[in-house]
Each structure stands twice: as structure tokens, then as C-alpha cells.
Write a structure and sequence with these properties.
By secondary structure, this protein is mainly beta. It contains 1 helix and 31 strands. Bound molecules: calcium ion (4 copies).
Length: 474
């Protein structure tokens, strides 16, 4: 989740500079609003989309996996030139392998610092993530490289605020001591070398014992221009407290502060005070209950010291203004994305509600957009969309789980972030083909005007069981 607030942030940044110039010497440091680079593989100004399709059959190998890339354009998502990238793409290291699920995880960022966003692709079989490089012609396999480390979770951010994108992975080099049960993460600081994939510097950090992080949320909460990290933790059915790791000019701190347990989330300034606010899926203390939960989104407002534990806000489908009703299994908050949809300078939050019943159709799924504002995130003006909403293509079917993944980015570069909603379990010609929808942002919020919707075949990805949209690059 790492979205585009370009217009608003450029304006806010210039106001911040002006404020800094006029502030007296004793004034507190002015926060730097969280900055999220546009995902732009061909650097044409339009945000591009990367959608994992890990179940795709490649070269006859079932579930070898692929990634679908859809470029932004003045007319929105450019479906006429959808690109499929896989191990079978010329230049990509390795061969298509059955059950590898290449594309199970995708993340984006300009790792080599040439101005073109690059794509990082992960698998489920323990192989290292692969970086595909952006260029004026877009992404290709040319020169792509397996990173020297990492194998599971990863996320991109600028953790030391030097302008180079860095990578955090959930691996930690354990010692040979059999009593050593440290688990952790490794922060690899950019720029990355194109030939070897090597980072400028790597720094392993112990996060916990036995089991490493279960998720990363990345963004600048403290207003110092360096991204921070929130890690999720748990063991068997027990969800433990999440941990906040502060980034700074020397990199990520080796000590953390505890937060309520969470999974997924985003960092964005929903109240416009310059500090990034942490918006997470609050999961209580038991993983086994998640499937039955109504779902809760929690905002922890940003401060110079980190997410506030006292200035927080809980939003559910029972909150005034939020469409729908909170029912067991709705899972409001399963995925969370941030971006300025209505162009008012406050970040808005898209919330996936994959277990929402539409009429009598169970687990058809929906997306709710919560609006930011001077008073912070609220239910005021919230909107809901699903496959039975007038103007939205498709039909609500049992188990579609529309909204399992969400992303906000400005695909047509008009200053309003657009919603990409994915339903990786949507049936097409085959079971679990997956599909995605792009809804346009406007001053009034999300609209159903000129929606782009597509399954794997429309963007040249082998369709059978592809699970298009299993992850969205952010
Ligand atoms: Ca582009
Ligand atoms: Ca690049
Ligand atoms: Ca804020
Ligand atoms: Ca837009």
C-alpha cells in the first residue's frame, strides 16, 4: 500500500517549506508529510498497476505464476497493452516451476534510483524475490535479477530518508547456536546494484523469538522524512502486540514500541497535520477468530514519537455514516489502502470487506471508502461499492470476496486517486480466475464513470486459476 498523493503533497510540501522559513528558531520541527512515490514503471506520470496472478499456468506448469502489469494513461487503465511477466519472460532468472506461485507477493519502488519504478516479485517456495527493472518502455525481463536474500514477506520504503528506496524482508540470519531462537527482519538500504541485486548496506534486526514478522506496514509516521515499519506478530492462534520500528537518518531503530495487535494497514495523513497516521486492521488477540469477525479499522494518529496510543479512532460498519451493517465474518479491514480520492488534501482510506454479504449472497465482498478530513478519518461521506452497485460490472456471487485487495493510485493522473479493487477468487472461464476493477476518483469521491474491469485473459495472463489480484504492487 503506498500510494500517490502527489498533487496534495506537493502543495503541502511547499506550505511546509514556507512555514519552516517563517518559523522562529525555537519552533518545534515542522513535520514532513508522508511521501509516497508514484508507481510509474515507464515514468510517464501515470500511475501503473502490478497485479499478482500466482496461480497462473506458465509453460504448462500449473501455478508457476505470473504478474500482470497494466499501465496508466490519460484514458485510465490501458487494458489494450496488458503485460504478463513470469519466469518464462526473456531475461527473468530461473524457469517456470509448478507450484512456485511467482507473483504471490509483489512490491514496487525505484530500487536502482534511475527514476523508473521497479517491480519486486515473491513466491511461496523459498526462492529469493526477483527484481524487474523499469524503463521508458516499461517493465521487461531484461537484466532482471534475484535478490541475494529474502524469501517470504517484503516491503519497500525509504527507511533512512536519503531518497533511495530500501527493502525490508522477513529473514534474519540465525547463528549456529541451537539455543538461538531469534527471529527478525533484514533492512537492505538502497540504491541496489542492477547487476547483482546487492544493497548498499544490509542490517538484520531481531524482532521476536522463534517466529518473524507476519506482516509489514511501511510509511512515515513521525514526520522526519524517513519511513517507519510496523510489524505484526503471533504464534499459533494467538495474535501478539504489533511493534513500531522508527526509521531515521541512521536507518531503522533496533528497539521497538508495542501497539495493539494488527494485520495489514497503511500510513497516510488523514487529518492533514503533517504526520502520517497509522490505519490498521485491528484483529483482537486470536487469529482463529478473524474469519468470524465483523472487522475493525483503527487509526493511531501520528506524532513525532510514533503512532499515538491515546489519540486513536475505531471505525466499524456500525460507525455513523459507514454503509452496510457489521455482521459476523464481514472482515471489514482485511485490506487497507490510502490515497487522496477527492483531491481535498486529506488522505482517504479504502477498506476491503471481503466477507460482506450482498443481499443473500454470502462472501460476495465490498469496498468501503472512508474520507479523511480536518477532524481525522470518520464515517462522514463514506461510500460502498460492490458488484451489485449500479454501474459496476460483474455480478455478486458467493465467495467472490470482492475487495480482498485494494489500492489507491492516480492511474489517469488527474489529481484524484483511483481505486483498484481485486477479487482474486472471482470465477471467470475457470474457478478462481480472479479479476480487478479500477474506479475513478473525483471531487465527489469514487465514481462508477468509465470503470475499467478485467480478468486475466484481457491483460494477456493465462487464465486458469490465475487468482489475478492476489496481491497488488505497492
Ligand atoms: Ca506510467
Ligand atoms: Ca529503477
Ligand atoms: Ca496526521
Ligand atoms: Ca485519477
Amino acid at each position: 500500500m503506498r500510494r500517490t498523493l502527489t498533487t496534495a503533497l506537493t502543495l503541502t510540501a511547499s506550505l511546509t517549506v514556507a512555514a519552516a522559513l517563517t518559523a522562529g528558531p525555537a519552533a518545534a520541527a515542522v513535520p514532513v508529510p508522508p511521501r509516497t512515490p508514484v508507481t510509474d514503471f515507464n515514468h510517464d506520470g501515470y500511475a501503473d498497476l502490478a497485479l499478482g496472478a500466482p496461480g497462473s499456468t506458465v509453460g504448462g506448469k500449473e501455478s508457476a505464476g505470473a504478474v500482470s502489469v497494466v499501465y496508466g494513461s490519460k484514458g485510465g487503465a490501458d487494458l489494450a497493452h496488458g503485460q504478463a511477466l513470469s519466469r518464462a519472460t526473456a531475461g527473468v532468472p530461473g524457469d517456470a516451476t509448478a507450484g512456485e506461485y511467482f507473483g504471490e507477493r509483489v512490491s514496487v519502488g525505484d530500487l536502482d534510483g534511475d527514476g523508473f519504478t521497479d517491480l519486486v516479485v515473491g513466491t511461496v517456495n523459498g526462492s529469493h524475490p526477483v527484481v524487474l527493472w523499469g524503463s521508458a518502455a516499461g517493465l521487461s525481463g531484461a537484466g532482471s535479477v534475484s535478490l541475494p536474500g529474502g524469501s517470504g514477506l517484503f516491503s519497500v520504503g525509504d527507511f533512512n530518508g536519503d531518497g533511495h528506496r530500501d527493502l525490508v524482508t522477513d529473514d534474519y540470519p540465525r547463528s549456529d547456536d541451537p539455543d538461538d531462537d531469534d527471529a527478525g527482519m533484514t533492512v537492505s538500504y538502497g540504491p541496489f546494484d542492477r547487476a547483482s541485486g546487492a544493497a548498499a548496506r544490509t542490517d538484520p534486526i531481531v524482532t521476536s523469538q522463534t517466529f518473524g514478522p507476519g506482516d509489514f506496514v511501511v510509511g512515515d509516521v513521525t514526520g522526519d522524512g524517513a519511513d517507519d515499519i510496523v510489524t505484526s506478530h503471533g504464534f499459533e492462534e494467538s495474535a501478539y502486540q504489533s511493534k513500531f520500528w522508527k526509521g531515521g537518518k541512521d536507518g531503522v531503530s533496533h528497539t521497538s514500541t508495542a501497539l495493539t495487535s494488527s494485520l495489514a494497514g497503511a500510513v497516510a495523513d488523514v487529518d492533514g497535520d503533517g504526520y502520517g497516521d497509522l490505519v490498521v486492521h485491528d484483529i483482537g488477540d486470536n487469529y482463529e477468530d478473524i474469519a468470524y469477525e465483523k472487522g475493525t479499522v483503527r487509526v493511531l494518529y501520528g506524532t513525532a514519537a510514533g503512532p499515538s496510543t491515546t489519540r486513536t479512532k475505531t471505525i466499524t460498519q456500525e460507525t455513523s455514516g459507514v454503509p452496510g451493517a457489521g455482521e459476523s465474518g464481514d472482515q471489514f479491514g482485511t485490506d487497507i489502502a490510502a490515497g487522496d480520492v477527492n483531491g481535498d488534501g486529506y488522505a482517504d482510506i479504502a477498506v476491503g470487506v471481503p466477507g460482506e454479504a450482498i443481499g443473500t449472497v454470502k462472501d460476495a465482498g465490498a469496498v468501503v471508502l472512508l474520507k479523511g478530513g480536518k477532524g481525522g478519518l470518520s464515517g462522514t461521506g463514506a461510500q460502498a461499492f460492490h458488484q451489485s452497485t449500479a454501474g459496476v460490472p460483474g455480478a455478486s456471487e458467493k465467495g467472490d470476496q470482492f475487495g480482498l485487495q485494494v489500492l489507491l493510485s492516480d492511474v489517469n493522473h488527474d489529481g484524484f486517486a483511483d481505486l483498484t479493487a481485486a477479487a482474486p477468487l472471482e470465477d471467470g472461464t475457470y474457478q478462481d480466475s480472479g479479476a480487478a476493477w479500477v474506479l475513478r476518483g473525483a471531487a465527489s469521491g469514487l465514481t462508477v464513470k468509465s470503470i475499467a474491469s478485467f480478468g486475466p485473459a484481457a491483460v494477456n495472463v493465462p487464465e486458469k486459476n490465475a487468482q489475478l489480484g492476489r496481491d497488488l504492487g505497492r
